Amino acid sequence: MKKKKPALIKPVLCVLCVGVCTLLLWKFGSQAPEVFASVAVKSAQLYLPHAAVTLKSESEKTDKAQATEKAAAKSAAKVGKAGKEKADDGANTSSLSDTPEDIAALMKEAKQQSKNDKKDGSISEWQYTNEGVTDKFGAVKVKNVNKTRINIEQLLEQKADLSVSGDKPSVLIFHTHTTETYQLVDRDFYPTNNVTRSEDEGRNMVRIGKAICEQLEKAGIGYIHDKKIHDKRYTGAYDNSRETAVEYLKKYPSIQVVLDVHRDAIERTDGTKIRPVAEINGKKAAQIMIISGCQEEGNGLTDFPDWKQNLVFALQLQKIAEESFEGLMRPLYFCPRMYNMNLTHCSLLLEIGSDSNTLEQAEYSGQCIGNALAKLLKNYTEE
Questions:
Q1: Whole-number Cα distances in Å, 168 to 2, 143, 148, 200
Q2: pLDDT higher than threshold 70 for residue 344
Q3: DSSP letter for each residue of 312-328
Q4: Apex CA 37: angle with CA 31 and CA 40, to 5°?
């Protein structure tokens, strides 16, 4: 004969369940459904070990994210969508100096393979500060080689012709000289088999553009990163990149900031290559030079009447970048060149380091200038 359970057990259990549910709702609010689901699954796993009840593991999420990233990397252009829910004010720069795993692996492999490299010329490190500076105000230094004189203080007080949308691409990053690349070994010489160009996106200018875009994405700023190779033949590269940029501007009228990201090549008459560097937060970064053009009488330019708009934007970016990362910027180069900078009122050319900087140094600088750009664009974001 079965022994009857006391009649009060069921009411007591009901009261306990209601109490627990009430506590969870009070403590977790809108997260309660997720908490209930988690408790249910954990209970099932505990009491029904053979039941097919599982939570998606973090490793599965990571695998999915990696697959998405690989698919994006194969496309000709990466489109980064803006989103206020993802926005980051860009204040935290402590992780910018971390060397990405792909670059660390490339450099480790290159170090092993380069043990028998023979010296062809020397590399000399140099930090640009006041070389050629004609104008200075606060942290902003300009090397002006035009006849046109400028007043940095007055120009900084002006607003750039810019209004960043919260949900559409506002920035286009492309590379006229896509195949420009960097050193993979940090040393004071370059070898006879020195590689200065590569179609490998993991080590040419595409990799640096990616670093800039990572900071825009963190800040919730929409962008397009074009990865097309425009310099299979060096002659005509600017015509090729212009066609690409114009296509994007037609497709995405919201784009206002257009950045052509390059790297420089600096060499003395004796063949010594110059590596422009600055130490930022204890790590070497490739110094960056912003180029902004000018149309004036006698310089041959006829289709660049709004050059001053670009200069205002360039000076603001120079100021924020140098104040955020002291020493990162070489003097801004204000010159009689256009370089497709008449596409929008915020079009610039960036030189990230030189061919004697390491890929690691250039990528770090890409993260820094991307962070500074995101801060600047936040000042022009529509609410």
A1: 71, 35, 36, 29
A2: yes
A3: HHHHHHHHHHHHHSTT-
A4: 140
Sheet holding 283-286, edge to edge: 189-191, 119-126, 273-280, 283-286
Q: Which amino acid is at 370?
A: G
* Contact indicator for 37, 56 with CB cutoff of 8 Å: no
DSSP letter for 56, please.
P
The whole-model pTM stands at: 0.79
Please name which of 164, 88, 216 lies closest in space to residue 380, comparing C-alpha atoms.
Answer: 164
Please give the pLDDT value at position 9.
55
Q: pLDDT value at position 11?
A: 55
As a whole number of angstroms, the distance between CA 95 and CA 87 comes to 17
Cα–Cα dist 263/261, whole Å: 7
More confidently predicted of 39 and 351: 351
Q: Region 127-131: what's the mean pLDDT? A: 97
> Cα(336)–Cα(341) distance, rounded to whole angstroms?
11
Is the separation of the CB atoms in 325 and 244 below 8 Å?
no
State the sign of the Cα–Cα–Cα–Cα dihedral 248, 249, 251, 255.
positive
CA separation for the pair 376, 381 (Å, rounded): 9
| Residue 339 · residue 260 · CB < 8 Å | yes
CA angle 212–213–214, rounded 5-degree value: 90
What single letter denotes the amino acid at residue 178? T
